[in-house]
Amino acid sequence: MSDYNFAYLDEQTKRMIRRALLKALAIPGYQVPFASREMPMPYGWGTGGVQVSAATLTPEDTFKVIDQGADDTTNAISIRKFFEKTAEVATSEKTEEATIIQTRHRIPETDLQEGQILVYQVPIPEPLRFLEPRETETRRMHALEDYGLMHVKLYEDIARHGAIATAYAYPVMVQDRYVMDPSPIPKFDNPKMEMAAIQLFGAGREQRIYALPPYTKVVSLDFEDHPFDPSKAEHPCALCGAEDSYLDEVITDDQGTRMYVCSDTDYCESRRATGHIGTEGTQPEEVFA
Amino acid sequence: MRDEMIFEGGFSDVSRDSARAFRSAMNAMAHPGRKFDLTGAKPPAPLSEATAGLLLGLADANTSVFLVGEHDTDIIRGWITFHTGAALANTPDEASFTLGTWDALLPLRQWPVGNAEYPDRSATLIVEFADDGENARLSGPGIQTHQDCALPAITPFRHNSALFPLGLDFYFCQGSTLRALPRSTKVEAI
Known about the structure:
The complex is a heterodimer.
Chain A: H1 11-26, E1 32-33, H2 47-56, E2 62-67, H3 74-86, E3 90-91, E4 100-104, E5 117-121, H4 135-143, H5 148-161, E6 172-174, E7 178-180, E8 198-203, E9 208-212, E10 218-220, E11 247-251, E12 258-262, H6 265-273, H7 284-288
Parallel strand pairs in A: 2-3, 2-4, 4-5, 5-8
Antiparallel strand pairs in A: 1-9, 6-7, 6-10, 8-9, 11-12
Chain B: H1 3-7, H2 14-30, E1 36-37, H3 49-58, E2 64-67, H4 74-84, E3 87-88, E4 97-101, H5 102-105, E5 124-128, E6 136-139, E7 147-149, H6 155-162, E8 169-174, E9 177-181, E10 186-189
Parallel strand pairs in B: 2-3, 2-4, 4-5, 5-8
Antiparallel strand pairs in B: 1-9, 6-7, 6-10, 8-9
Helix pairs in contact in B: 2-3
């Protein structure tokens, strides 16, 4: 028996978050205000995602946490341990086994299924915030569907750089109504947001929750003559050889030598375990043999 | 009024049962028209198990519940007050949750639908409704192609979804099963 209430938060807080989540699912892409709590970690380390996960977890769930695709970073491990301790839920690093996946800045490479829930940690939920700092104004812009400013921003990208330079947190239009920040995922992940799983977004410091039900229409903003391009590094993964996954660039010495590896560690390991080996890869078992 | 009817029938393990109740409520809202089980509450009649589970999982001192028709009884008022601490709303525009049978909830325009800047400031209607055969075809967020289900009417829901992003969200409860119909769902007769 744990000394904590189930999933750490008190019941009244969880009910408040749960009511916000239901409204968020009923109005896809709309940011529902909620009374974010102090968590035992600083803002910026996933307090929004943690509160959404705490309100969503049931004792039967299997919980996975990824940080930029990796299960084994400090932030991912500490959040996973937090819920092992406070909710006594099973955890896994396997995307297929998990029922709730909390993520910072990636969508897993493996397609998610119905019954799975993806919880995003969101730093700045308001897609218009860097264009218009006043909350009263951005709220009115959402109310009036006044998204011209966002298109001007993308147009200025093209005028200055010849292409839309936004590479992450690339804005999307949800169900032809709300412009939404997909959190700082690479734009490579944007097309995956039309998925079978439920997607929940929590911004702790900014006190906003939003959501996408399964199969919701999610369109990355673009222009007819500059269509959306979900680009990635033009290399195969050095460890598993995958050519369809999002890659991290790793500098390996002082001479600028670099390698490209899958950012999704579970995807990369599963591929190597089934015999897909890249130019610098080994099968996972051999490492420990 | 018999006290035991008021004091009994809540969740036996509040935090875990509430978590499971919410999962059912969320799955329903994310998959409009699809049936989910919500068990664990044992409320006094005529409250259904699913309705009571929704209230136990979602209502508290920060929300108000409006009871209409045959659901507005001393025993149900007492049960909700004792188990959730929710205030009972006196006027429709204060209601966060409204509870009753379909006919008693009409006309729908009396319930708050939110405003353009805060469409979330709207009522959720919990309808005690016996499934009497599929008469509606649903499409929209949460539905891959279409979902057929039973609704007590068609036109009011078409009007409701035309208000999007304003509007009402519905739960239809029968025994221990529930289905949801958010404002984002398009409704056609079949």
